[in-house]
Each structure stands twice: as C-alpha cells, then as structure tokens.
Design brief:
Layout lengths: L1 E7 L5 H15 L1 E8 L2 E8 L2 E6 L5 H13 L4 E7 L2 H13 L3 E6 L8 H20 L1
Parallel strand pairs: 1-5, 1-6, 4-5
Antiparallel strand pairs: 2-3, 3-4
C-alpha cells in the first residue's frame, strides 16, 4: 500500500482539500464505498482495478487507527488521509507505515489565515490537484 498523508494544523483546510480530491476522483473512477464518520467521510474509488481509499478525518490517533482499518478492510492500493502535524496522530501513521513496509508520502498543508476565502479555496484546490497527480502515478 502507498499512503499519502495530508498533514497540517487544525482548521487549515485538510478536510475540504480531501473533499475536493474526492470530487476529482469521482470524475475518473467508480465510487465503490462511502461511509460517514461524524463530519468526515471515508470513500473507496476503483480506477481501472486500482483501489484508492480517501479518509478526510485525522485529528487524533483513534481516527487514524480507524482510517488504517478502513484502508485494510477495503484492500486499498493507495490510501489518502488527513493527519494532524502534532505528535500522536503523525507518529501513529508513520509507525504503521514503517512496521508494514508501506510507502508513506507526507504533504504539509499550508496555513495562510491572511488570505481571503476565495484565494484560500484556490490553495486547497491546488493541493488537491497535486495529490490527484500523485495518485495517478
């Protein structure tokens, strides 16, 4: 499994960015499964036989463990998750990847509270496009 972790501080737009990624994937892949966990979603897409799972939550290690269980249960070849940049959730995912010999790509979500909302939406969309390109490789 290849894991892509979108790391960042609270309220920096990780969830909205991953929702944008899911919108992009929905245009080129088949949605196989979707579940709601509070305000977050867990979705699995099938792109030409490759399973891509996206989990928009990642605020604590319990959520990260739930995401990991979802990735395994749905046999994801590519797993994308939000993750806090603080110690416990970040270490949880890094430890899992290391212990299971999974590739882990980490992306840091920029935080720029000085931007106007329209500009911030563009930043989130650009990050989502970058992750989409990573998934497509």
């Amino acid at each position: 499994m290849r894991i892509i972790s979108l790391n960042g501080r609270p309220q920096c737009g990780k969830t909205h960015t991953l929702f944008a990624l899911c919108d992009m994937l929905a245009k080129s892949a088949v949605l196989e499964h979707k579940e709601t966990v509070g305000p977050d979603k867990r979705m699995t897409f099938n792109m030409h036989g490759t399973l891509i799972a996206v989990c928009t939550g990642g605020d604590n290690k319990e959520i990260i463990w739930g995401n990991i269980a979802y990735f395994e249960r749905h046999h994801a070849a590519i797993a994308v998750t939000a993750n806090r940049s603080k110690a416990a959730p970040k270490r949880t995912l890094e430890g899992y990847a290391y212990d299971n010999d999974h590739a882990l790509n980490e992306i840091v979500m920029p935080y720029a509270n000085f931007l106007k909302p329209a500009a911030w939406t563009q930043v989130q969309h650009l990050v989502a496009e970058h992750i989409y390109e990573m998934v497509m490789r």
